[in-house]
Amino acid sequence: MENNFYIKEKGLLIVISGPSGAGKGTVCKELLSKYPNLAVSVSATTRDPRPGEVEGKNYYFITKENFLDMIGNDEFLEYAKVYDNYYGTPSQSVIDMMDEGIDVILEIDIQGAAQVRSNYPEGIYIFVVPPSFSELRKRITERGTESEEQLNKRMNCAYDEIRNAKNYSYIVINDEVHVAADKIASIITAEKCRSNRLESKIDEIIGRS
Amino acid sequence: MENNFYIKEKGLLIVISGPSGAGKGTVCKELLSKYPNLAVSVSATTRDPRPGEVEGKNYYFITKENFLDMIGNDEFLEYAKVYDNYYGTPSQSVIDMMDEGIDVILEIDIQGAAQVRSNYPEGIYIFVVPPSFSELRKRITERGTESEEQLNKRMNCAYDEIRNAKNYSYIVINDEVHVAADKIASIITAEKCRSNRLESKIDEIIGRS
């Protein structure tokens, strides 16, 4: 970051969501490989670690009691129960990274993003969409993991989900992964130039601080 | 533009302003040399062409009567009288370029930018500032064209002008010209991803259009 000799700036929270199959995971991976000042938030979960999963890297593995306590103390940016297990994003770890000037990426489903928005409206909300529904069908089919019925169910779900686009500040069409990742990087750069984030810098330039 | 096979998008109006001496001209030149889909708006003036100036490239050279008629018909995005001559940005030429999908750069002083904003609030307003007042003083001194008195006058003027920063959506600190130009390019990319500009694209993806 070229402005390190000024006051250390707080990092941004960048929430990346979108319909299932839009490729948000691939785009985030590309983004993280290109831009070093970004980090992904690590979720907490009550499920057991799978072989090879590392505490604090893949997940924070905590007990159900612990998780429920944290819910009670309002310590999650968002959480959800999936079957018998809980998954959530602990606020503190995100805040700590942002305080260090790191921009935190939260790649999350639409329900989770809505929870984060109500807790942290100052975040940057980006909706990743496939270029078309025929392309989305093609991508899901190519994975080869879904039956015809499951495919149709997912397509209908994506169709409903894409209507959430208007709740996001930005929409990135994932036509080519590297283009989509570069667009998100541009959004982050632009958001750092927003005048309401730079008031203290203007004070510095004037010599008022 | 990677999305040419969709509906042709309207270009953006990007207004670049800032205190005198911030280097907005140099930044704009760098920006235009790097990004081909940008054009600078051409001003109209009542002053005589200077040797080498080309009609329609440097300026539209028009008569005073013509200029006053255009003012009367509200045909300028902004205009000003400087000594005996008028200078202004004709709305129509800007609109024509935007309709062709070209992003139009308007590099303009703070008073002009305020006029443009009242006529076209949908524009992108970017304020270019020097990294510090000591750097600004150094830059103006290096030009060697100003007396000590003129220098102090310009510094005071810049000091007043920089207070306008809060009226702009974005602030770009011109520390290094290529970094500042890249930031403006990122702002343009990000603005094209704003969800309110992409409503019709979402309709296309869903197949509603």
Automatic annotation (TrEMBL), chains A, B:
Task: List residues of the Guanylate kinase-like domain.
Answer: 11-189
Q: What are the annotated GO cellular component locations?
A: cytosol
Q: State the Gene3D superfamilies in the record.
A: Guanylate Kinase phosphate binding domain, P-loop containing nucleotide triphosphate hydrolases
Sites where the protein binds ATP = 18-25
Where is the protein situated, by its record's location annotation? Answer: Cytoplasm
MF terms from GO for this chain are: ATP binding; GMP kinase activity
Q: Does the keyword Iron apply?
A: no
The organism's superkingdom is given as Bacteria
Q: Which UniProt keywords apply?
A: ATP-binding, Cytoplasm, Kinase, Nucleotide-binding, Transferase
Pfam families in the record: Guanylate_kin
E.C. code: 2.7.4.8
PROSITE patterns reported in the protein's UniProt record: GUANYLATE_KINASE_1, GUANYLATE_KINASE_2
Q: Which reaction does it catalyse?
A: GMP + ATP = GDP + ADP
Family (UniProt): Belongs to the guanylate kinase family.
Q: What does this protein do?
A: Essential for recycling GMP and indirectly, cGMP.
Q: What is this protein called?
A: Guanylate kinase
